[in-house]
């Protein structure tokens, strides 16, 4: 028993140095590991710093190269610009030399060719004028010299509208078309019936399949010709007796701007004279000047077009009589209507602005003015009144 106790006491004494040595070895290994790790990190940081320095130096070298190249390009650009400018100067000098040599060279052959071209052009113009005279009947040789008097036939009260007779028929019927947009024609047996107070009861009503636009419509040989509402430049030919559309056409260039500045509701103004159907309108390409077009009322095709020098500014109406356009001007606030520009399509060279021909004894404005070649009178609509103007004419 005593021996056993002694052995138990000796065991801790013998084993304690061995445990301490083991712990010391573990600490040394940990320190060695940490030292190696720090050494590795330091090397990596040093390499990173070196790489950054290398990148900075490389970027600086590249920047210097780029700046050097750019400076070279600017210098090259200046040289090229100088060479181009020198080339342009030489070309201009050469052009001046060519012009000089051309001016001192004998130009008789060129003059002869030019004269031949002029002769050919004059010949073609003469042929065209002869053709137009045949088409338009040159026997129509009178022109307007003055407006003698007026007669107010009736006052319907509507501001805009149109009224007329059919100059292509022998009957005495009167046609009334109220408003700038409508689709009903009122037909009266004669002017006495038209002047009666209750016009709707005594009139025959004719309903159109399409409404009209503006007040520039005309009736000729039993047909109503009018600008179709909602269309740019469609003209309808309507048979009043059968109440059917007989034909239609598009008028090139028309309908984009008003024919007259003061009543802008009319884009295409149709007219009748001794030669038949015409169209009056304005186009942006002519600077707003009035354009005249001759239309074949049977085939509904354009026969000829004239660009006139008559401005549409401050215009309220126009009419055609005996191949000649008469343009009526007024003030925007309404005043004395006057004809100031005349254009003869067969003698366009002598077209001129005339001393104003004033409309007599009234102040106001016109919605429309149309010439009746059969009675040699003007049928006008002015401030709600239906007016007839008698004309004074003379030989052209």
UniProtKB/TrEMBL annotation:
Residues of the signal sequence?
1-21
A single cellular component GO annotation: extracellular space
Report the superkingdom from the record: Eukaryota
State the organism named in the record.
Piprites chloris (Wing-barred manakin)
User: Using the chain's own numbering, where are the disulfide bonds?
Assistant: 140-322
Q: Give GO BP annotations, semicolon-separated.
A: signal transduction
Alphabetic keyword roster: Disulfide bond, Secreted, Signal
Q: Which InterPro entries match?
A: Olfac-like_dom, Olfactomedin-like_domain
* Segments crossing the lipid bilayer: none
Protein known as: OLFL1 protein
> Where is it mainly found?
secreted
Residue ranges occupied by any Olfactomedin-like domain in the UniProt entry: 139-395
Q: Where in the cell is it found?
A: Secreted
Pfam families (alphabetical): OLF (PF02191)
């Amino acid at each position: 028993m005593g021996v056993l106790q002694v052995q138990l006491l000796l065991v801790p004494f013998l084993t304690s140095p061995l445990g301490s040595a083991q712990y010391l070895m573990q600490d040394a290994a940990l320190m060695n590991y940490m030292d190696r790790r720090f050494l590795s990190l330091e090397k990596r940081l040093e390499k990173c710093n070196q790489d950054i320095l290398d990148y900075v130096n490389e970027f600086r070298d590249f920047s210097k190269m780029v700046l050097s190249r750019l400076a070279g390009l600017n210098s090259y650009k200046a040289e090229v610009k100088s060479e181009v400018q020198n080339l342009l100067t030489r070309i201009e000098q050469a052009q001046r030399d060519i012009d000089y040599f051309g001016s001192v060279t004998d130009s008789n052959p060129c003059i002869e060719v030019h004269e031949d071209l002029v002769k050919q052009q004059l010949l073609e113009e003469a042929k065209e004028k002869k053709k137009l005279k045949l088409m338009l009947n040159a026997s129509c040789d009178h022109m307007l010299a003055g407006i003698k008097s007026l007669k107010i036939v009736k006052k319907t009260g509507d501001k805009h509208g149109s009224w007329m007779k059919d100059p292509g028929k022998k009957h005495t019927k009167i046609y009334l078309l109220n408003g700038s947009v409508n689709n009903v024609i009122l037909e009266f047996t004669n002017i006495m019936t038209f002047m009666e107070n209750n016009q709707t009861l005594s009139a025959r009503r004719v309903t159109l399949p399409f409404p009209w636009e503006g007040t520039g419509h005309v009736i000729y040989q039993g047909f109503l010709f009018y600008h179709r509402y909602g269309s740019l430049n469609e003209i309808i030919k309507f048979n009043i007796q059968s109440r059917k559309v007989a034909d239609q056409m598009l008028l090139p260039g028309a309908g984009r701007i008003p024919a007259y500045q003061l009543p802008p509701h009319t884009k295409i103004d149709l007219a009748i004279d001794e030669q038949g159907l015409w169209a009056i309108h304005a186009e942006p390409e002519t600077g707003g000047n009035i354009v005249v077009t001759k239309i074949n009322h049977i085939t509904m095709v354009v026969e000829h077009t004239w660009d006139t020098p008559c401005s549409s500014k401050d215009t309220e109406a126009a009419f055609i009589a005996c191949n000649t356009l008469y343009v009526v001007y007024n003030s925007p606030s309404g005043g004395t209507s006057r004809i100031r520009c005349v254009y003869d399509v067969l003698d366009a060279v002598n077209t001129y602005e005339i001393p104003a021909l004033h409309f007599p004894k009234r102040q106001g404005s016109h919605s429309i003015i149309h010439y009746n070649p059969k009675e040699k009178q003007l049928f006008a609509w002015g401030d709600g009144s239906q007016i007839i103007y008698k004309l004074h004419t003379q030989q052209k």
